[in-house]
TrEMBL record, chain A:
Organism listed in the record: Dankookia rubra
Polar residues composition-biased segments: 49-67
InterPro entries: Cyt_b561_bac/Ni-Hgenase, Di-haem_cyt_TM, FDH_cytochrome_b556_subunit, Formate_DH_gsu
Keyword Transmembrane: yes
Protein name (record): Formate dehydrogenase subunit gamma
Transmembrane segments: 143-165, 192-214, 234-254, 289-310, 322-344
UniProtKB/TrEMBL annotation, chain B:
4Fe-4S ferredoxin-type domain span: 4-34, 78-107
Keywords of this entry: 4Fe-4S, Iron, Iron-sulfur, Metal-binding
UniProt protein name: 4Fe-4S dicluster domain-containing protein
CDD domains: DMSOR_beta_like
InterPro entries: 4Fe4S_Fe-S-bd, 4Fe4S_Fe_S_CS, ET_IronSulfur_Cluster-Binding
Amino acid sequence: MTAVRALGFLLLLAVSGVALAQQQAPGVPSGSPEVQSSAPEVGAGRGGTNNSQQPTSSEQQPATGQPRSAAPEGIAPRPAVPVAPIVAPPPFTARGGPDAADVELEEARRLGVVRGMVSIPNQSAGILVQPVGRDWRSWRTTVLTIAGAILVLGTTALLAGLFFWKGPTRIEAGRSGRSIARYTWLERFNHWMVATSFVILGLTGLNITFGVYVLRPVVGPEAFTALTWWGQAAHQFLSFPFVIGLAGMLAVWARDNWPTRVDVAWVKAGGPMAKGHPPAGRFNAAQKALFWFQVGGGVAAAVTGYLLMAPAVLDNVTSQQIAHFIHGAMAMVMIAVILGHIYIGTIGTEGALEGMSTGRVDFNYAREHHSVWVEEQLSEARRVVAPPDARAAGAD
Amino acid sequence: MARLKFLCDSDRCIECNACVTACKNEHEVPWGINRRRVVTLNDGKPGERSISMACMHCTDAPCAAVCPVSCFYGTADALVLHDKDLCIGCGYCFYACPFGAPQYPKVGNFGGRGKMDKCTYCAGGPQQDNTPVEYMQYGSNRIAEGKLPLCAEMCSTKALLAGDGDIIAGIYKERVQQRGFGSGAWGWRTAYKQELSV
């Protein structure tokens, strides 16, 4: 038993001695990066192949102390290793890459930009080529100009034809001589603030689009530049009363313009084309549609316009092009719609304009065009004059 | 007359920005305006290349087509120049330009644009050649002195070429044939509807 223990102790001593010798490799301290390896080592001693030193000679080495063999020294044949030849890479300057013309064509097709890095502060200058610019050009010189001209001139011609064909809508019962309050001074002031700024915004905007073709040949380059310069200043400054007025309209008129069942009936009856006058509230369905279209379009035009006004906000040519697209398209349609509104509100309908100028309309006009509203006003008036819980004087 | 063009050999451009600096110095261009800039594509990646870009003086220039006051004019050498006295700074030329060449000094209302400024091909403007008033508005007029644009003249690797379109295209093609590679002339398809693939 003791002998077995002694043997085991000796064995342990021998093993630890070997381990100690391995740890204390000469020169390199144990645990140093040279000793440790992140990757499993591969070599002749570790089971790898083809990593051994190429022997310089295939000759048998003589035993120590023995004379050299007289046989001629033979060079060891290189091992037959099927190594694919490593081809030298092309010079760094031979970068090749896609052809410039192909890249430009591809970006033009997918409405993209060729973007890179610049070392100047203006990072938006990193767009090297934006072939879409040529498409924006066709929008401005062809689509907006020709379609816009057709829209505005066509609407004007249509309204003129309507006026000469059918004439204005008369008050069928004739003027009653009595009037009913229709718009408060705040509503009228707000309306005319929006109207004035819209007309000037529209005219200066049309000048930006068509002036170079229409006005410039007439007045000359210098005068036209002066006009357009002041025009764009007016366009920028008058956007503020326009937007404030839109917000005011939304505040005072949104409730009266909320769609109701009466509007459905009004449209089903034929709206403006109906025989007689279908019943309508304070505003009929067409007026409500106009209201919501102008508010929505005005907001879209205002947002895009302010973004164009402060070009540093949209630090990107593509988003500026989109903003201009929305702004121009919206403005053209709004101008056409407002032309119709101006016609109907002035020469197209007898008795309509005085509502917005004096605040009162003829009673018969109100009864024909806005019968439901008149009923409401009358019942309200009766309630105020004679409340249901009113008691005759002296009844106590 | 010649048909003056720019050509940047992107296999030679080393992004030293000397053309940018030379242009700013030659024309006393104000802060924030770079008539010429160097754009590096695939920066730091394989296939990186740099291109010096400015107004390419396009054939059928989009800026001139969209200008609402028609302030652009073409010269006998087919350069696209503009009259700053007519410009209203609306920014339309910037939307239309494929190369981002129009620059604005940002002096107007609401951080607006001010009169547009762009590469003149060192050819000044509509004023009398080489007068102080022309220099104030457009910078120096080297073309009137019989010289080519400074950016191309001093390019250290001769990557940027300026001159008659046929001549510089010939130089580029010769280079490509000699060295065996080339990725085409950036902007030429968009600006001149011409491809320089060899």
